[in-house]
DNA sequence: TGAATTAGTAAACTGCTCAGCATTATCCAG
DNA sequence: CTGGATAATGCTGAGCAGTTTACTAATTCA
């Protein structure tokens, strides 16, 4: 807790930031409203907001039709389009690129299928093409981007590399940060997909009210992302949440119960088998229900370990299987009751397979914010890594 | 991230606090040194430190023999004895009371045996007597105490009550906060013993360099305390770290391997059996070594679950068994290698059975600090709950 | 004894917030 | 259409905190 001394200029910086925080994510606001929100006096807010307008961080909205008595107030709006960030999900089967403004509004979203067998070079080339397409549509250049966050499967270390256990072929040799740094001058971040999805779920998803969250990315692979006390926990080596690696936790084999369920039509695509089983279970098929129960039982051990270790408020069931949460959540709850001391809330994700890219956007925005907090806000320009 | 506006007086408060922070835990310091540490100018520090002296937070040390060239500087010292806190460990077999000044120096420590079968009323009465004795020796009254933290076994909720699973007979009905609040006007806190021991280990123990710590309280009971990103994680319901409740994790039965080891002399006291086995294993006894290996194997599953879930930097082996860490750590390391992706450092606690009370002191001091941060520092007086 | 060095102190200056008052723009009633 | 009521804006002076600069005081060493 090393508090450091403050002087006047730093104080002004902080007050200016508090105005930005009060402006952002709100309707265009009058000076009086901002003064209330930021806890400052009206004159102080006035001059602060003037300099924000002069620097390009905010813009004035001249008063229009106003049904209230008295002189109509000018309203100030945060210029969310002063900068943009990219959130990118590099999945096994797809690439998802999201372009967002500084308020987190999505400007463009682009989805491209990916070859599951592609080597890192090919995969990164596909990512490059997708990014180019998004920038082209938005009429932007890499210099307009303030931060980029990439999501990949497998644990990611501090340098953005995936050392151990990734289902992306050859990915342990890839250095995605270096690859993107060649094109983007701004900060570049790589993060594990489960962690990003957890972040998204707290930002725009089903757990926005909770500070302690265990997020399950359930699909053909199972993973977890942890948010404790409102912030993402990466672990010392970036490998937090990898409980699936424990042999007693059968997350690796759990989806097998679904894929090997008797009765799956031979016509079903490899990725569709699980969906078929869930639907069959929903329709009352006996064998399918057994398969789901077995899957849930294997899943529950790992979830219980996380719940007992962390005592979260909410467990979010997300990932590709979350569309079938209606047949999973109840048996999962029953299994957890057997294992746990205190049962957390169980919720199904609503963000579907966009959660990873969305979480990447949020992390990129956090990066921008932390730059603002440490460097203060001069004119809005892209920070350099 | 709701930044709030600042004005001059708040700024002064913060700078004053930064001087206190720079003063505390250091040798008596000159104004110039403080200015460097706090990042303020010399004149500014001078007037701040003057008011600190006037308020009773600091005292001057007139310059004595000084071998350096130039005018000798006055030195200022934090008045650590301006206030005191109590850290109390209510164990099954013992009660340990620590009285500490504001710098964390222990003024008095008192250990009293406790009846394992005592009901809560009797136990709390014994605690009262121990507290009275400590206060008497220090010549203090309850009004001189600024914060009290109690450590108990079993998970503790936000109100300081232990709802589930405690080895203290009848304790679920006890309300220790209410009991102590009748005597102490200051803030009172109750916390789980494993969590407190973890805090102590990061404060004065073997993990002071780490921010992500899994602490094991190993004894006839096994428990865990978690420190992530440098702060204690309680979990949403205060039950974080209770991985031992999982059936696949055999922490409940693990110490049984030691107690049921053949060859234990009948003369050994019930609590001494384990120590005998550890010693025998150290001496090369075949059966004892097998017992230790079995114990370690059961222990390792739970540790591996925590390590995989959290990816800590350090695992600290503490509690009553930590004296025998030399025969446990190596087999534990081998077991963990089988389970984990990334092996954290393994360290043996050096605080022994004082860690819980010491952690309680640290938490009480944190309480005092957070009061200072939020309320600022007027004259040093005991805060009221 | 005087030069060098460092600490303490006072004054001038900058920059910020705030309170209060005059000004301005709008609505509405007569 | 006009004057009064209402509320936002703009301006000025007061107060406060920290920095800079310069000066004085106290000590050591040659």
From TrEMBL, chains A, B:
One of its GO terms (molecular function) is DNA binding. Transmembrane segments: none annotated. GO terms for biological process: regulation of DNA-templated transcription. Belongs to the ROK (NagC/XylR) family. InterPro entries: ATPase_NBD, ROK, Tscrpt_reg_IclR_N, WH-like_DNA-bd_sf, WH_DNA-bd_sf. Pfam families: HTH_IclR, ROK. Residues 24-60 form the HTH iclR-type domain. PANTHER family: BIFUNCTIONAL UDP-N-ACETYLGLUCOSAMINE 2-EPIMERASE_N-ACETYLMANNOSAMINE KINASE, ROK (REPRESSOR, ORF, KINASE) FAMILY. Signal peptide: none annotated. It comes from the Bacteria. SUPFAM superfamilies: Actin-like ATPase domain, Winged helix' DNA-binding domain. Gene3D superfamilies: 3.30.420.40, Winged helix-like DNA-binding domain superfamily/Winged helix DNA-binding domain. This is Transcriptional regulator.
